[in-house]
Description:
Distance between the termini: 38 Å
Number of helices: 10
CATH class of the largest domain: Alpha Beta
Structural class: alpha/beta
CATH superfamily of the largest domain: FAD/NAD(P)-binding domain
CATH topology of the largest domain: FAD/NAD(P)-binding domain
Shape: globular
Largest sheet: 8 strands, mixed
Amino acid sequence: MRATTVVIGAGHAGLAMSRCLAERSIDHVVLERGEVANSWKTERWDSLRLLTPNWQSRLPGYGYRGDDPHGFRTMPETVGFIERYADAIAAPVRTHTTVTSVRSTDGGYLVSTTQGAWRARSVVLASGACNLPRIPAVATALPASIRQISPLDYRNPDQLEPGGVLVVGASASGIQIAEEIHRSGRPVTLSVGEHVRVPRSYRGRDIKWWMDRIGVLDEFYTEVDSVERVRGLPSLQLMGSEDRRDIDLNVLTAQGVRLVGRLAGFAGGKAQFSGGLGNLCAMADLKLNRLLDRIDQWAGDQLGDHGLEPPHRFDATRMDANPPLLLDLVASGIRTIVWATGFRPDYSWLDVPVFDRKGRLRHDGGVVSSPGLYLMGLPFLRRRKSSLIDGAGADARDLSSHLAAWLAGRSPGPGGHVNFAAVTGAA
């Protein structure tokens, strides 16, 4: 079987690329290991809603069409949205087709799958950024009596063992799961590392509205001092809820969740935590206020503050003066650890020499260091919003343009192949 381009993954990113390729009359196929929106359908917890308002689901040629633009879709609603998009653009999706390897050939790439092989001049990797949980090596030192689970497997508190829970990680997943488990009646301890604190709403508008309007989400990957550092930042402490409530460390401590510092390791059945919790919280508060300052400046300059609530600032993060550095898991009644420590993509099937010494793909804004190979859907791939549904369209337009120029033998222009050692630290 042959196609000019093979797109791997039929989530929002792969479908956005499919639409852009179709607009350029580039014949292609989209290969999906499960069904359309498979990860959204099978790897999310029950109560999860999108962190972005419904209006912000903007894909090439498609957008939100309901009567609640400022609400937050549930996962079944999100799956339905993506499925309708696939139908609307008539995406050439082959479902239940698992890619087993991608290899370079003289004429491009050989893509082997459980449903046969494809030969293509170009390949787009849109298989997702959250295929595997990042579980630290210290997890191997845990007693066998402690159950371990990641957000990919977590569905609701009922599946957990009775007793206390240690949630490791305080980004969007960790902070939401910690609150939900605590509300179920289980005592929760939250291990806090670097985090990004933001309010759900500010001056009467959703924080995502502000970030969209002031240009934060459109910041380009070449405009930041260290793109690798920014790509590694945790997700915002946000949740989508019908009452649009905030969720941060102050909310959790007011409910009774205990805060400890960054997890350092385990020894003798005891968890060890760093003593830098205060500094981490102070830095998050500082960055929050910098963002609010930027919003206030833009609001004054562009809107004259018309129709907006007055500026205000939020209470500093509260915590114990001396949070514990050691925690005896058994004596504290902890039976489960939730590893909300991030995710990583799975490219174990990619047999092309494009990885740096840390196992990361060498790429320049989604243009991989092997001609004709492209990447979609990773955090800050080209823009700060790249991993959002709302960011897939802009990235797909850029990369499909580059791909089309490459297929035609033309110079792709800005955003082409550059010094990958400088971009990724591969030297």
